[in-house]
Amino acid sequence: MTQGPTYGFDTLQIHAGARPDPATGARQVPIYQTTAYVFRDADHAAALFNLQEVGYIYSRLTNPTVAALQERIATLEGGAGAVCCSSGHAAQIMALFPLMGPGLNIVASSRLYGGTITQFSQTFKRFGWSAKFVDFDDLAAVKAAIDDNTRAIFGETIANPGGYVTDLPALAAIADAAGIPLIVDNTSATPYLCRPIEHGATLVVHSTTKYLTGNGTVTGGCVVDSGKFNWSASDKFPSLSAPEPAYHGLRFHETFGSLAYTFHSIAIGLRDLGMTMNPQAAHYTLMGIETLSLRMDKHVANAKRVAEWLENDPRVDYVTYAGLKSSPYNKRVGSICPKGAGALFTFAVKGGYKACVKLVDSLEIFSHVANLGDARSLVIHSASTTHRQLTVEQQRAAGAAPEVVRLSIGIEDADDLIADLDQALAKATA
Question: By Cβ atoms counted within 10 A, which residue in 15, 151, 312, 384 is the most buried?
């Protein structure tokens, strides 16, 4: 279909990237379960390998089912292109891979998913990369953390686990002044609640495992390129601006313009890192996205009701949901996430660590899993699981203090969710 300003989000989430199959006329995107594709002739093969023609070579690089998903996500995010991969963690490495090198660093929010903090602070050391963790509410500290070796600023739209809303335009201004990209993890918000590119983001990453798929069946990740960054404005990004030896001196930014980052991520990132999304996972995610807006409206409505009930419960010390009027982040919701503050937040249980563990074990509807963004309501005690590798100080900075439980509110009946929390709190604080 022709995608233009006349099409709304609800239409694009169904139709973007989903053309009738040219071979059979199939209306739903087929699962192209194949590893390789037959070339028309030797010249066709050579043109594909030289990046002179766009097409399919090998499913580690490109696949028609995955390509449809990439187009859909890029369209919904307002990006120039997108590359899907095997998981959200893979997407983070993919996003940084063209930008980084030994001795280089990123400035990252201290409020990130615990696994991301571990990846940035520990695993990246093996590549010679490093991360400086900063409270993104302190813009002066963000500016001060940037040095000559900084290659990106990285944060989450709605931070996991606390549900804090990030001031994206302010960070974008800092990134622009430094001549570096702003990378935004939009997993918790989805493009339905927030389109970070409209707020100045250069790259957007997703764990498609979460709300985009929405049913807890497959893992996946995606990197969306805004197509707006000038990779040749300095010598900071030679992977994109300098001659590439593997392609006979081709300069990606000079050759591909606004799609330079996307082409590099496929032709080199997927080629050499191999973090490929399988076509069946892409198919599940395509189907999930078809109902994204409907689900997110219900997620948000339920989260607001549950958060308001918890805030007024004497067994609870505080609730971090940005959709509450009491939240210091509530004012940002209207400008950053005008359709709602998402469905992820934490609350502190009176009785501390032990009470949190008892509460998690006492819940019946909520599933105790290391995931979020499912149609089902989920719960986890971050300090003993996802953020377990961090110090207590780091846990508190990340919004995952020992006395805190994280909720991912699903699309069940809100009254049933409240009743389940009520009975579990009674047991946990007895």
Answer: 151
